[in-house]
Amino acid sequence: MLDKKTRKKVMWRSTFLQGSWNYERMQNGGWCFAMIPALKKLYTKKEEQADALHRNLEFFNTHPYVVSPILGVALAQEEQRAQGKAVSQDVKVGMMGPLAGVADPVFWFTARPLLGALGASLAMEGSILGPLVFFIGWNLMRIGFMWKSQEMGYEKGEHISDDLAGGLLQKATQMAGVVGMFAMGALVQRYVSIDIPLIQDQLDGLLPGLLGLVATFICMKALKKNVSLIVLILAMFIIGVAIGLL
After folding, report:
1. In whole angstroms, what is the distance from residue 44 CA to residue 24 CA?
2. Residue 210 domain-assigned?
3. Is 192 helix (H, G, I), strand (E, B) or coil?
4. pTM, entire model
């Protein structure tokens, strides 16, 4: 009942999910705004459309990118409802929390820093490709993920919970962690530099970038001890200047 053109309209509208964020029901306005093209397609009577709008204005809150598979499931459910079948909203409510927990490490803590570091390294060399790589790369990944995951949710409907229960979320989180730590190791070697003139050659012969790695681990340990990031930055600045003078 919902053609690809309508589903694409829903996906594009979902990019405004947080456009009317509020403290009472959070992203419900953006969710309802995204669903409008589908609701108009499925329901022709004004009363039915009004009921559908009211139903889609319930509380909703998740990561703005992983709303897409949930929207896909909701589209499939609205199709069933339009055909007179009984549909529960439990799947929608049950998905928003777990998916949000997975999306933060995948997008904010892995993909975005990696693209940012790549773009920054190009920009530091004076290349205009730096900001372009970040902006274009990020949006291609974001839009591609949103469309594909919405289609997956639409095709599987309520059965998407079978995939999630089968460890899909855990595998995605673990993969993001592995990629993130691998990239962090490469970035530390490139950007964290400590030079001790008298013994630097010996240290490089033992393990290039050893001191930078040690400094990184010290910072990580301090952060785990709840040391403020500002305090850590100031401490590094003071220590660096003092040792530099020595």
Report:
1. 30
2. yes
3. coil
4. 0.69
